Amino acid sequence: MKQTRRKFTPEFKTKVVLEALSERLPMAELAQKHELHPNQITQWKREFLDKASDVFSKGERLGKPSRIISRRAKNSTKPSAN
Q1: Rounded to two decimals, what is the model's pTM?
Q2: 62/55 Cα distance (integer angstroms)
Q3: 32 to each of 1, 22, 36, 49, 76, how far by Cα in Å?
Q4: Dihedral, CA atoms, 44, 45, 46, 48, nearest 10 degrees?
Q5: What is the signed CA dihedral for 23, 12, 35, 42, rounded to 10 degrees?
Q6: 23: left (phi over 0), alpha (psi -120 to 50) or beta
Q7: CA 31, CA 65: separation in Å to the nearest integer?
């Protein structure tokens, strides 16, 4: 029987990468804990760090606006209770 590829959510990848960056566990133990190959964690970590500066970049945003901006926009369009 053919085995299907596992798919991981961005939230799971972020959790694993942040654990890897904390260096509380050796990479081998972290990989075993999450049932991953250490190379996969290394790849996610490299991608995370390569794109980390985008969080603080000004100007155009990739994807949709942040939730904070969306909430502010919603609150400013609500009629006042007066």
Answers
A1: 0.66
A2: 10
A3: 25, 16, 6, 22, 48
A4: 80
A5: -50
A6: left
A7: 33
Distance CA 46, CA 35 (A): 19
Query: Are 37 and 27 in contact, with CB atoms under 8 Å apart?
Result: no
Residue listed under structure tokens 């939230």: 11
Per-residue tens of pLDDT for the chain, all 82 residues: 888 999 999 999 999 999 999 999 999 999 999 999 999 999 999 999 999 999 888 766 555 555 555 555 555 555 555 5
- Residue 21: what residue type? L
One-letter amino acid for residue 11 of the chain: E
Cα separation, 8 vs 16, in Å, equals 11
